[in-house]
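Re: beginner question about structure tokens

> Can someone show what the tokenized structure looks like for a real chain? I only ever see the sequence side.

Sure, here's an example I had lying around. Input first:
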Amino acid sequence: MDSKTLRCKYLYFFQTKGHVLISPSKLIPENDPTTLFTSSGMQQLVPYLKGEVHPKGDKLVDSQPSFRAEDMEEVGDNRHTTFFEMLGNWSLGSYFKKEQLTWIFDFLVNEINLDPKNLYVTIFVGSALVPKDIESEKIWKELFSQANLDFEFTVNQNPQQGMKPTDKIFYYNDKNWWSRAGTPEKMPIGEVGGPDSEVFYDFDPEGKLQIHKHSKFKDKPCHPNCDCGRFLEIGNSVFMQYVKTEAGFKPLPKQNVDFGGGLERLTAASQDERDIFQTDLFLPMIKVLENETARKYEEDPVPFQIIADHLKAAIFMISQGLEPSNKMQGYILRRLIRRSILKIKKLGKENVDFADLVRVVGIIYEGVYDEILQKQEIITQLLQNEASKFSKTLNKGLKEFEKLASTGDLNGQTAFKLFETFGFPFELTQELALDQNITLSLEDFNQAKNQHSDNSRTASVGMFKGGLADNSEKVVKLHTATHLLNQALRLVLSQEIKQAGANINSERLRFDFTYDDKLTEEQRQEIEKIVNEQISKNLPVFFEEMVTKEAFTSGANGVFGERYGDKVKVYFIGDKEKPFSKEICGGPHVVQTGVLGQFTLGKEKSIGAGKRRIYGFLK
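And the corresponding structure tokens:
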């Protein structure tokens, strides 16, 4: 089954089950400044999974293009990508485990014709804080029993010790628990989470291919999560079941379902093709690359896999308006392109014809994401410009390499500098070093890289306007208080005040705004008074979806004006007709201001010409 048919079947299947189709978010989130890219289908639905009412109902389905920069180093096998399309269905307090597992099994077996003998499922084994997911086990037992398998299947309680041919259901610990904070033990008070159930497809059920024995895991027991390549995860049903409280885990008032299945992996399973790069979602790109380089994919697949994944991600980003740069999303885009060019060089070519690659990607997604074909000339030109710039940087990097090698200063630490400054990945520097009988330490390189990541992470705190550390209860309260502070500043200082940035963690809020002078003590007291008055009034906090242009003309405050989509969420604090605050925001917020407590201002300082920074606290 080709990918377009599979995508359509999935969306239609869940629409027949009462789900409403929702539009995907852009790769660069418009109303979520806490992250660089949309990395999953659930990202735009977080407020609704926490209790807000979605305007389209409590059963939703979509197909969401997603990107995960953290997976960049994982690309180079038969299944990992940075860019992927996530098929998702959602229950916002509607159906739960029984319906979800039954429907997804029905879809896999009867809609895309996967043999149930090749399907394996995993469930949560429980912990000291949360019970074992026996309910999901019972449902899966019933479903496999109805599938008329020609053997009596079994449940594996300890898959890391290996599996029997009859095992179909596997219990795992942290691999089958979902929350944004990790395991139940690591979750902060107020965080939501729950068990999940993954479905795996077996590409070697009879053992003829001996996939596990030919992998680097050959000396370890094989099981669905061993990552040897025999099994491929094709879907995960997350059950948002609990909230962590001071007294332990308690069931949520409304229990939600969040399913995600990668289109690339589902397509591979439907074609019984264990290499996703040999499916119709990548094969046209591979063919172009083979023609351009006069090399065969089978001879050395890794460079082809990296180039195809990275350039597809880059093409999607550019089609949505992003350009290469040295900051934030633009930096990631630049790194994708430059890493692709290095791999092209490894295949023996200085460059390739980007026009053909852009065209075939556009054809792959024609009728679904038509902006690629509509903007193919712009995309091609940007790719070519970046390739030209990198050629110059590449030559400078090679000169720096020669200098370091000749002076004896080439080591793991300086190899990272070559990577960071000139885009040289470690493996390229390592190859060049070996030619000169120099051995580099990957450990030293990773140490420098990790140190840089820690520094970057620290430096990035506050880079994103409205940046939230997480969605815990304290952060949500302080985020809501930021709306009150923003309006209070406008009332006391000037209606021309504009938000210039924000950062919020569980301890305090930090708010940047446009203003020339230091606040007087009288102004500080008046701002605190206004904010606390709104808290004492216990005003309602709610939102309304509005057309972006109408939101601004109606007087709503906003930050990322140039990046809003056609519709936005406008949050009101107070009466809708005469609200105290009216602001475009992606959430999350409290429901009533009365829960915020006492607000106080902290230190204030200048952060540049015409910009001030002030801190606030809740007690």
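Each token stands for a local structural state, so reading them left to right follows the chain. The chain has three domains: 3-277, 317-460, 467-618.
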